[in-house]
Write a structure and sequence with these properties.
This is Extracellular solute-binding protein. Keywords: Signal. The chain is of the alpha/beta class and 431 residues long. The chain folds into 2 domains: 146 residues, Periplasmic binding protein-like II (D-Maltodextrin-Binding Protein, domain 2), CATH 3.40.190; 210 residues, Periplasmic binding protein-like II (D-Maltodextrin-Binding Protein, domain 2), CATH 3.40.190.10. 47% of the residues lie in helices and 12% in strands. It is built from 17 helices and 11 strands. Strands 5, 6, 7, 8, 9 and 11 form a 6-stranded mixed sheet that branches. The chain has a 5-stranded mixed sheet with strand order 2-1-3-10-4, covered by helices on one side. α3 links the parallel β1 and β2.
């Protein structure tokens, strides 16, 4: 009887295995419905997303998309400057996550596109009819016709933010010119208030200030120098360097600013310890959340030779914007691509609900009143007739790193303006 039982059990097991193998005889690639069902029920590893931005809505939006798609998500945040090294190492070692973000600029995009590590997203965007949802130029087609990223930030530019309460306490108005800026620095310092919070350790915040100081000297200086029509040792570059040196000597920045990150500098401003923050418009969400109606905004003052109304700014109206990419080698490629596109649109929804500018059409409406400082910025940004691109984003990565190292050295006060521009000319002319 035991023998008969074992024989029956073996036959049942064989029959079960045979039935289980039958679906494998069908080509799932020829049956999309079957493939989609398989993807939705198969046990897979969590999707991994790498992010370097600190905006308050980014992680909740990612988690909401993951919940909608019924997938597990590993959300990994890295300090913005450390992220640059991390992404380069991951590209070189072919160890990218399923979904990752990247900075704007030619050199940052070339790192991804030249290595051919990003998957085209055309199929997901086209299949779902989403291309028309994205506003003009927010989806970038490369020369091969493919779209390799979706946006997660609208166009950006430099902003000067200030604490209204502190400014009123000092009896000042936001500076409109160089003399008023120096007076503000002196008055705030004498009152024990940090005049300008700056994360010098990360290099780029000081770089942006210098870029705009040059812009205020001559709107065409950088573009002409980049083309070789003039030299980086010419007057606009020297005068702007002199102004950085004056700011450092006037103690415009917090003590130890060269050893502090941009995030640490922002916290000084958000917590009311610093009067002013010169940064990018991407800081508005956290600045509004921290200061509310006490947040003030003004354009970068007329610090140089150009006089009259301010019609230009440093910023990003770029063919290489901040983007979300998908690893071409992801083991969950289709799911990762769908997540990336959904995530981009979810972030856009959150921007609109927060009363911020967007990059795609959405039925969402602002859920809060638009902050007065941000509303003024949007008005100014619309009226800027010229946006000077961030220099770093227009040059090769190796040149950009050398330039930013040099720019950081300018803020140490150990270089004269003439030494600085001569060294910059040498860096910018390297083949």
């Amino acid at each position: 009887m035991d023998h008969e039982f074992r024989k029956t059990r073996s036959m049942l097991l064989l029959l079960t295995m045979s039935l289980g193998l039958l679906p494998g005889c069908v080509d799932s690639a020829s049956n999309p419905q079957m493939m989609e069902t398989s993807l939705s029920t198969e046990e897979v590893q969590p999707l991994t997303l790498w992010m370097f931005n600190t905006d308050i809505y980014l992680k909740p939006a990612a988690e909401e998309v993951a919940k909608e798609m019924k997938v597990k998500l590993n959300y990994e945040f890295s300090n913005p400057e450390r992220y640059k090294t991390k992404i380069k190492m991951a590209v070189a070692a072919n160890e990218l996550p399923d979904v990752f973000t990247q900075y704007s600029g030619k050199s940052e995009w070339e790192l991804i596109l030249n290595a051919k590590v990003a998957a085209p997203l055309n199929d997901v965007i086209t299949r779902n009819g989403l291309e028309i949802k994205f506003t003009n130029q927010s989806l970038i087609r490369q020369e091969d016709g493919n779209i390799y990223s979706v946006p997660y930030r609208p166009e950006q530019s430099q902003v000067v933010l200030y604490n209204k309460k502190l400014m009123a306490k000092l009896g000042l108005q936001p500076p409109a010119n160089w003399e008023e800026l120096l007076n503000m620095v002196k008055t705030a310092g004498n009152s024990g208030i940090i005049p300008i919070a700056l994360g010098g350790r990360d290099r780029w915040p000081g770089d942006l200030i210098y870029n705009t100081l040059v812009l205020r000297e001559s709107q065409e200086a950088y573009s002409r120098a980049a083309k070789g029509e003039i030299s980086f040792t010419d007057k606009p570059f020297v005068d702007a360097a002199d102004k950085v040196i004056q700011l450092v000597k006037a103690n415009a920045f917090q003590e130890g600013f060269l050893n502090q990150t941009d995030l640490e500098a922002r916290d000084l401003f958000y917590t009311g310890k610093a009067l002013m923050l010169i940064n990018g418009s991407w800081v508005f969400p956290n600045a509004v959340s921290s200061l509310g109606d006490d947040l003030g905004y003004t354009v970068f003052p007329q610090t140089g030779a150009i006089k009259g109304p301010i019609t230009s700014n440093t910023g990003e109206r770029s063919t290489n914007p901040y983007g979300i990419f998908v690893n071409a080698q992801s083991k969950q490629l289709q799911k990762a691509k769908e997540f990336a596109v959904r995530y981009s649109l979810k972030i856009n929804d959150e921007l609109v609900k927060l009363g911020l500018s967007s990059y795609a059409q959405t039925p969402q409406k602002p859920q809060v009143g638009i902050n007065g400082a941000y509303a003024q910025y949007l008005k100014d940004f619309k009226n800027f007739t010229y946006i000077q691109p961030y220099w770093y984003g227009t040059i090769p990565a190796t040149m950009g790193e050398a330039y930013r190292d040099l720019n950081q050295k300018l803020y140490t006060g150990t270089l004269s303006s003439s030494q600085y521009v001569q060294m910059m000319e040498h860096i910018m002319r390297k083949p």
